[in-house]
UniProtKB/TrEMBL annotation:
A Pfam family reported for this protein in Swiss-Prot or TrEMBL: RabGAP-TBC
Name of the protein: TBC1 domain family member 15
Purpose: Acts as a GTPase activating protein for RAB7A. Does not act on RAB4, RAB5 or RAB6.
Positions of transmembrane segments: none
Subunit note: Interacts with non-phosphorylated form of RAB8A; phosphorylation of RAB8A at 'Thr-72' disrupts this interaction. Interacts with ARMC12.
Subcellular location, record wording: Cytoplasm
Length: 662
């Protein structure tokens, strides 16, 4: 009869510097086939002699005490290794009992000394990683089942100097360190300024944020403070974000900032005059697109004849609620603008068949199939959790056994089958809910949801490149439009704009009522008057709060609280009017940079085309001294007329469309 040893019986021989769960061993030279396709933990370890190695441990090395881990948030529930601090250094502690097969499992550990590592390669969307200690031979291959290898590679680069090969940009060669590099690395190690000096909470947040950006942002981030995602709804009107949590968030976001350099010269000082923006015009909102105007813009067979004109009418005033069900299908690319009524009926029939065919794929999956399909099972579980907490205070989704929740879940599950590469990411239920509320039809809601997701697909990139890019562009726009506020945010550790993450991810869904978000979304779907107008919406909201944020000297915590308290307190028409005014103010600035032009989709100054004026300047708005607008960038490839509206002169596509607006 074997005896299970206690944790204390095992001497501490090494120190875990970094660990990543859910790593599959795909190939390893010299190992039996039975060892392959096993799940384990990939670590960077410091040995007793201060040498370092890459170590893979199988999951069955240690059993876990179920009380020591929150199963809901565990990535791999069979892991019993946790991190704790002892005298400021990261130490390894073991939770649970050593199994009877401990010796056998320990023999399966794979170690790769870092000083012997020659090359490594990252492929398959950063999910597969191979290591080599001999030129031309890949000895081990690992597959990262949860997230990707990005954070592991980033941490590995703290310990080895690498360079990408010319023939394969996915392959890294380890550069042999010289004496100076070794001395410098030793100095840094003695200073103890790297990641092992941060708290476990911060490290795990940063690590998970890079591996699983959306689950972490919308789950773990929210678990620290519901107010970041759910606002007042999740906190019952209370604001309870502690200084400690705010500090953790600040440190975690700062850890992900790209490095910047500052060059100074003590011999001279350059004093420059800050350029100022022209006066911002006030542009009133128009009336919604009415039934009469909508029907008047279609021919006898149902084709929409003035597509750009319709979009401009929608941009100026939105859509009357009575015709939203029809108009939204066009705005979301479900219905092509050029199709007749008969062609649309045929398209609807075809799309209905496609939808139910995809729905049948997951509805007919047996329990056995589901048990062997972990990715599908995980996504289904996440959908179920989100559906049960999506807009439950709204009458349409309120109450137990609500059939609308069943439809909401069915649509999201069918989308998983439609786009399995993306699947489901938390936040998508927020996007779908208003569509289902308005359209009421399962098939129409699905295809409109597909169209909406196509517009914001970069929000849900696994590497989070799309969100990072938008946050950077927002920071650049704010710096140009409101440099004083941008400077204040940067000084308060908020320059990364991460407090706007929720706004951008779900397009302000949690900031407005259902009625107002419908108005805002349909305006944004027109893509007028420029690219990335949703970023100018962010600038308009922040600009309205500038005096409060600066005069009260709000820091990170107060900024976070204040921004979340804006939920359901914003005037959508005022914000739209302000955002359009900021647009005209920005594009009229004499010092408008190519950086801002690119963000707004305007031609850069070094681009010359025959359609531009003799000076090759792009068509931009001019703001007169009285604050009125002269000229506009709406549809540069169309014939435009400059007409007057309520004292304003604005370019419009045709006089016919403008008459409909008036």
């Amino acid at each position: 009869m074997s005896r299970s040893s206690s944790v204390e019986d095992i001497p501490e021989q090494c120190k875990d510097l970094f660990t990543q769960d859910g790593v599959l061993l795909k190939a390893c030279l010299g190992r039996p086939v039975t060892d392959l396709n096993s799940i384990g933990m990939l670590c960077i370890v410091q040995n007793q002699d201060n040498t370092k190695c890459i170590e893979w441990r199988p999951n069955d090395l240690i059993t876990i005490d179920s009380d020591t881990q929150d199963q809901e948030w565990a990535v791999v529930n069979t892991i019993g290794i946790t991190m704790s601090y002892a005298k400021g250094r990261r130490q390894r502690t073991l939770s649970g009992n050593i199994t009877s097969d401990y010796a056998t499992a320990r023999a399966r550990i794979i170690k790769i000394p870092i000083d012997e590592l020659k090359t490594f390669r990252v492929t398959r969307n950063n999910q597969q990683m191979q290591f080599s200690t001999k030129p031309g031979v890949w000895q081990t291959t690992f597959y990262f089942q949860h997230g990707n290898a990005e954070i592991f590679v980033a941490y590995l680069k703290n310990h080895v100097k690498t360079a990408k090969t010319r023939h394969d940009r996915n392959t890294y060669v380890v550069v042999e360190p010289n004496i100076e590099t070794q001395v410098l690395n030793k100095s840094f190690a003695e200073l103890d300024i790297f990641t092992e000096n941060t708290t476990d909470v911060v490290w795990n947040l940063v690590s998970n944020f890079k591996q699983r950006p959306y689950e972490t942002t919308m789950e773990a981030f929210s678990k620290l403070t519901d107010i970041v995602y759910y606002g007042n709804e999740g906190m019952n009107g209370k604001r309870d974000v502690s200084e400690e949590v705010a500090d953790l968030l600040t440190k975690s976001m700062s850890a992900m900032e790209d490095a910047t350099t500052v060059t100074k010269n003590d011999e001279y000082e350059v004093i420059s005059v800050k350029p100022t923006l022209p006066q911002r015009p006030y542009i009133p909102r128009g009336t919604p697109l009415s039934t009469e105007k909508w029907e008047g813009l279609q021919d006898t067979e149902g084709r929409v004849t003035e597509v750009e004109g319709v979009k401009q009418l929608i941009f100026r005033g939105g859509v009357a609620h009575s015709i939203r069900q029809s108009v939204w299908k066009y705005l979301l690319d479900y219905y092509p603008w050029h199709m007749t009524h008969a062609e649309l009926r045929a398209l609807t029939k075809k799309r209905t068949e496609e939808y139910f065919s995809m729905k049948l794929q997951w509805r007919s999956m047996t329990e056995g199939q589901e048990a062997r399909f972990s990715e599908y099972r995980d996504r289904k579980s996440l959908v179920e959790k989100d559906v049960n907490r999506t807009d439950r205070t709204h009458p349409f989704f309120a109450g137990d056994n609500n059939p609308n929740l069943v439809v909401l879940q069915d649509i999201l599950m069918t989308y998983v089958m439609y786009n399995f590469d993306l699947g489901y990411v938390q936040g998508m239920s927020d996007i779908l809910a208003p569509l289902l509320l308005l359209l009421g039809n399962e098939v129409d809601s699905f295809w409109c949801f597909v169209g909406f997701m196509d517009k914001i697909a970069t929000n849900f990139d696994m590497d989070q490149a799309g969100m990072k890019h938008q946050l950077l562009q927002l920071q650049q726009l704010l710096t140009f439009a409101s440099p004083e506020l941008a400077s204040h945010l940067a000084a308060k550790d908020s320059g990364n704009m991460y407090f706007c993450f929720r706004w951008l991810l779900v397009w302000f869904k949690r900031e407005f009522s259902h009625r107002d978000i419908m108005r805002l979304w349909e305006v944004l779907w027109t893509s007028l008057p420029c690219a990335n107008f949703h970023l100018l919406i962010c600038v308009a909201i922040l600009d309205a709060e500038k005096d409060i944020l600066i005069s009260k000297d709000y820091g990170f915590t107060e900024i976070l609280k204040h921004v979340n308290d804006l939920s359901m307190c914003l005037d959508v028409d005022k914000i739209l009017s302000t955002a359009e005014g900021i647009y005209h103010q920005v594009v009229s600035a004499p010092h408008l940079t190519d950086q801002i032009r690119i963000i707004l989709g305007l031609p850069t100054l070094n681009i010359s085309t025959s359609t531009h004026s003799e000076s090759d300047e792009p068509t931009t708005s001019k703001v007169e001294a009285n604050g009125t607008v002269k000229g506009s960038v709406f549809a540069q490839d169309l014939d435009e007329d400059t007409l007057e509206y309520n004292g304003l002169q604005i370019c419009i596509v045709t006089k016919t469309v403008w008459a409909l607006l008036a």
